Amino acid sequence: MRMISCASVPLFEAADADIVFRRLFCALYGSAEPNVALGRIIHWANVAHGLSASTTALDDCVAHVPSGYFYAPQTAAPVPDQVPSLIEQGGDARADVTLIPVVDRAKAATLRDAKFIELPWFVESRFISEGDVHASLRAQLGGDRYRRLRKQARKADAEYAFSIHWGESAKAWIPTFDRLHRQNLAKYGHRSNHFAPSLVEMLFDSPLGARVGIALQTVRATGEAVQACLLAHDDHARMISLIVHGIDHDRVPRDQNLYASTIYDVYCWGAERGVRVFSLGRGAPNVKASLGANVFRPLANYVFPHQPQWTPQLLQLRALAEAAMQATMASLLQTGNGR
């Protein structure tokens, strides 16, 4: 597993994007302010409950979320001067805890110093191309896996047409994206749809909208869309972020890997336009390693307890989350060393 540094800040991590994400978060949970019980926050509850059934004791703990809102692939760590204000905001909101989600652990020293409890949570995966995208993929995957990926993409291209629609022109595809994204919601048992049509429309109508797109795979013979991906393109950072996918598995043969083919198509589309950083999102890092990911960033939630009764349960959860993260990173290292 090779680690490559990249200092560019993508669109979805820009400071002004937080205003958009706050609106989406509040609309999702029907709250005027970003104060929501942990058990209602899908990106918290799904992971916490998966670690241990005993973590449901935290479900009623009300969190003030001042940044990131789980909509950004990762949240920028606050600078030291900002931390006291963030804690104060949570206290003023009479929340039980202040929650700053999915911060790169390598950049979170100020939060640890301020006595935030660190909860390892997700791994964000990226493919960073060094020059020619095909040469970079071959170097990362090895010859055999690279050829299999190319073969999958060619097979898909014979049956499906790939396209990306940006900004205003993408809005016509929101119902299609919703139909396919809801397939994923059913598969993973999500109770809330954090990219419901009204929220996606809000995103496209926001200052970020021109750089947000919907990628589609449509059946060449019928024009029916069977796979969709919401994504963002940042010219300045030369980066594409894949946000969320949806696929109709009932309409796609089992031997057709449209997920892999779409990622490969995005690589090619981006490379033709000077993109060199591809964020493949959070979760399933071993799958993404098999598709070329060469940077894996452990992300953690940082929680400041305003009410001390929650501290023991948070510390118990931290131990469980740390063990799970160590196992994930060990698995990635093994995968990266065994092409």
Explained architecture:
By secondary structure, the chain is of the alpha+beta class. The protein folds into 2 domains: 11-124 and 297-337, no CATH class; 130-275, Gcn5-related N-acetyltransferase (GNAT) (Aminopeptidase). The chain has 12 helices and 10 strands. The protein has helices at residues 17-29, 42-51, 83-92, 109-113, 133-141, 143-159, 167-170, 174-188, 197-204, 258-271, 285-289, 311-337, and strands at 35-37, 62-64, 97-104, 117-128, 160-166, 212-219, 225-234, 239-247, 277-282, 295-305. The chain has a 10-stranded mixed β-sheet. Helix 3 links the parallel strand 2 and strand 3 (97-104). The chain is globular, with a radius of gyration of 20 Å. It starts with 16 loop residues before the first helix and ends with a helix. Mean pLDDT is 91; it is low at 1-8.
